[in-house]
Amino acid sequence: MTSIRPLITADRDDWLPLWLAYLEFYESSLSPEQTALTFERITDPDHPIHGAIARDDAGRAVGIVHWFAHPATWSVGPYVYLEDLFVAPDVRGGGVGRALIGTVTDWARSAAASKVYWLTQSHNTTARTLYDRVATDTGFVHYEIELD
Prior knowledge:
Blueprint: E1 3-6, H1 12-25, H2 32-43, E2 50-55, E3 61-70, E4 79-87, H3 96-110, E5 115-117, H4 125-134
């Protein structure tokens, strides 16, 4: 049985390999300073970014999720952006990803949010198989402008 709970400072050594694997999957890298800042933000109860960690029966960290709420122009309640979701490759397909999304959805309901949304790469077929079961593909295309 997978257990999921909010990330705390003591989880850093278990969170870090999952975070680095997530960045590697997306062919990205961040400085050690940015990684440290990200973890500090997630584990700071006064910061608006939240995180949770999934552990298997043996206590091994097998997944992470990060999210935050933001105001929206199209609804009374906020929207919740699920920014990062990663499940260890050896446990994919076993319900961990669904459970982590459920954690964010439950949090969003408790925050009176109007919706939870996220982005993924179009060729991320493994994740999209799950996403197509738990959410609606809106058909939107993502654009961005990087700022220095």
